[in-house]
Amino acid sequence: MARRYDPHRRTRIIDAALSVIAADGIAGLSHRTVAAVADVPLGSTTYHFGSLDELLVAALRRCNENFVRALRESEALAARGVPGEAEGAARTAGSAGLADELTRLLDQWFAGERGAIELEYELYLAALRRPALRPVAAEWTEEAVELLSRRTDPETARALVALMDGVCLQVLLAGGAFDAAYTREMLARIVAGGG
After folding, report:
1. How far is CA 135 from CA 9, 22, 57, 130, 139, in A?
2. Is the pLDDT at 7 greater than 70, yes or no?
3. ∠ CA(142), CA(9), CA(112), 5° rounding?
4. CB atoms within 10 A of CB 137
5. Does the CA dihedral 96-98-102-105 come out positive or negative?
6. Helix, strand, or coil (residue 153)
7. Among the ranges given (4-18, 80-94, 140-154, 164-178), the one the predictor scored with the smallest mean pLDDT
8. Longest dimension (CA), the chain
9. pLDDT tens track for 34-75
10. Model confidence over 99-150: pLDDT tens digits?
C-alpha cells in the first residue's frame, strides 16, 4: 500500500500536542496521546519529533508566535521618534505612545482565550526544568526586545519585556483581571526613565 502524502501532518501533530497540554498539562504529553488526538499513526509522531522535548520546542515556538506577531504588526511600534524634537518632549510623547500601545496589546491578549495564555506560559515556564526549551523561551524575549528597541534603547526594551512578563504571570497566578491603568503607568515609568 502506498504512503498517503500528508503535507500538514507535522502541523496537526503540533496542534494535537498543544491540545493535550491544554487539557492535561505537560505531564499528560506522550507520543501516544498526541498521535490519538492528531489521528495519525504513532510512528508519525516519532518520525517528525524524535523526542518529547523536540515536540515541546515546536509547541512553544508556535505559542511564542502569537504575541510577537502582534508586536510585529503594530503600526504604533513600527513608528520611530521624529528626529530633531526636543529630548524632553520626545521622551514624554514616546513614553505615552509606547506605554499605550503595549497596554493595548496586553489588554487585547487578555481579552482573548485565557486557556491559550495559560498554555503559553506553562510551556514558557517548562524551560526551567527542560533545558531544550530554554533557547526557544529566550527567542521570544530577544525578538520582543529587538522589536521594542525600534522605539527605545535595548536596556529599556528589556525592562519593558520583563515588566510585561511579570504582569502576565501575576494575573495568571492570582486569577485576577488585567489592570490596564496600572500596567500603562508602570510601562510609562520605565520608558520615561530610559535613554
Report:
1. 25, 22, 9, 10, 6
2. yes
3. 50
4. 19
5. positive
6. coil
7. 80-94
8. 73
9. 999 999 999 999 999 999 999 999 999 998 887 888 888 988
10. 999 999 999 989 988 888 888 889 989 999 999 999 998 998 999 999 999 8
> Number of C-alpha atoms within 13 angstroms, CB side, residue 187?
28
Question: Are 130 and 56 a contacting pair, CB within 8 Å?
Answer: yes
* Residue in 78, 25, 84 with CA at minimum distance from that of residue 56: 25
Instruction: Let me know if 175 is exposed, middle or buried by CB neighbors in 10 A (0-12, 13-18, 19+).
Output: exposed
Length of the chain: 195
DSSP secondary structure letter of residue 86: -
Distant-in-sequence contacts of 145-154, Cβ < 8 A, 24+ apart: 147/68, 147/71, 147/72, 147/77, 148/71, 148/77, 148/98, 150/77, 150/78, 150/80, 151/77, 151/79, 151/80, 151/81, 151/94, 151/97, 151/98, 152/94, 152/98, 152/191, 152/194, 153/194, 153/195
Cell of 96: 505615552
Distance of CA 186 to the CA centre of its chain: 20
